[in-house]
Amino acid sequence: MVFNFSKYSFRGIQDLCRKYHRQIVASPDKNNLKSVLDGRRVRFINPLGEFDYAYFGEFTFDGDVIILLTKDHKYTKFHKPLHLSTLWSMVPVIFAGVDTRFKDDQYQEIFTGDVVSYKGYTSFVRYFSDSLVPSLAGDNCDVQFERNGDMHKEGTVFSNIKPTLFKLFTIENLYWPTNQYVPYGISRDEVIERASKAKSKPLFTDDFKPQRRGRQLIYQQLSEVLRENDILCYLAKEMIEGEEHLGIIQCADNIPDDYTGEEHSIELATADDFYNSIKTAFHEFLQYAHNNPEKTFVFCDFKEALEINKYEEQKIALQFWEWYEFKIPNVIMPFWILNNIVGWDMIGRD
What's the sign of the alpha-carbon dihedral 103, 173, 34, 345? Predict the structure, then answer.
């Protein structure tokens, strides 16, 4: 049996993401795919347990789990790599509906997954089959909306939802029964009471404990941030004298004498321009670090080792731009690098 899904339904949006997958993951901020879903916002529940919104082109799917592609710092610590060649953070979120372009009697926007009272019925909103008109979910048929302002939003279905939906999404688990359509369902008053508890914020079961604090991303002194099990990273370059290769040297100012932990060498290409060599080597390292979010990498300072003066600082710091742009949360850098990047970003571009 072949089902034709509305493009505004969960399955319809999922199918569109499959169709445009390459464009989405290649460049989420430049792909101009909003029009694919007619500029409608998709609502999701973020790992902090809040509603948030994204446009088509800013997310993809891993199975049935929606994956937000983001640079937003509040989300980057929730990155789960999908082995794609990108520095965007890929964050599992819970699908929570799409904008229907309808508003209720209080001018509140109505999304699929909202619980609405309309024409004497109270149920959740969806796009049934291949319809382009939203409706209240029924048993054998739905009650389609006709005009803005005729309905009243009671809340959402996102009440007592389980955190496991971040890992294994089952949309049917969200749509709890109402007595209009399901035998032994709860009463209309109970439906409204339960829906109202998740009107402005989803209501999770008791075992949901969102992570709210992350690591410090910069340091003045290495001892401020270095912890057991962190990986100490440093630039390295090959020393050549004439035709003779003298070996690889560390370009690091502040490796503690008693340090016995894991190290990671970021080797500079000797054939490249010095600045391009740093940029290229660091990009490859960021890809590795980003695909290993369970590890923390602390980058050693190298100003003294490379004899960098204050006039060279900004140009060298800008070779680490991707770390700043993509907010890679498990790579901790010296303060002066961030300070120079921010200064250029705020006033230096002009």
Answer: positive
Contacts of 282 (CB under 8 A, 6+ apart): 266, 319, 320, 322, 323
Instruction: Give the residue, 163 or 346, on which the prediction is more confident.
Output: 163
pLDDT confidence of residue 1? 46
The stretch 54-72 carries a mean pLDDT of 96
What's the rounded Cα separation, in Å, for the pair 269 and 238?
Answer: 8
The three-state DSSP-derived secondary structure of the chain is: CCCCCCCCCHHHHHHHHHHCHHHHHHCCCCCCCHHHHCCCEEEEECCCCCEEEEECCCEEEECCEEEEEECCHHHHCCCCCCCCCCCCEEEEEEEEEEEEEEECCCCCEEECCEEEEECCEEEEEECCCCCCCCEECCCCCCEECCCCCCCEEEEECCEEECHHHHCCCCHHHHCCCECCCCCCCECHHHHHHHHHCCCCCCEECCCCCCCCCCCCCEECCHHHCCCCCCEEEEEEEEEEECCEEEEEEEECCCCCCCCCCCEEEEECCCCCCHHHHHHHHHHHHHHHHHCCCCCCEEECCCCCCCCCCCCCHHHHHHHHHHHHHHCCCCEEEEHHHHHHHHHHHHHHCC
User: Which amino acid appears at position 294 of this protein?
Assistant: E
Name the percent of the chain lying above pLDDT 70: 93
Burial 40-57 (b: 16+ CB within 10 A, else e): bbbbbbbbebebbebbbb
Instruction: Identify which has the larger pLDDT, 18 or 257.
Output: 18
| pLDDT at 244 > cutoff 60 | no
Question: Residue 309 corresponds to which tokens in the numbers above?
Answer: 């003066």
Q: Does the pLDDT at position 121 exceed 80? A: yes
CA distance 12 to 171: 13
Distance, in Å, from the CA atom of 231 to the CA atom of 267, rounded to the nearest integer, reads 16
Ramachandran area for residue 342 (φ above 0: left; ψ -120 to 50: alpha; else beta):
alpha
Average pLDDT over every residue of 117-133: 92
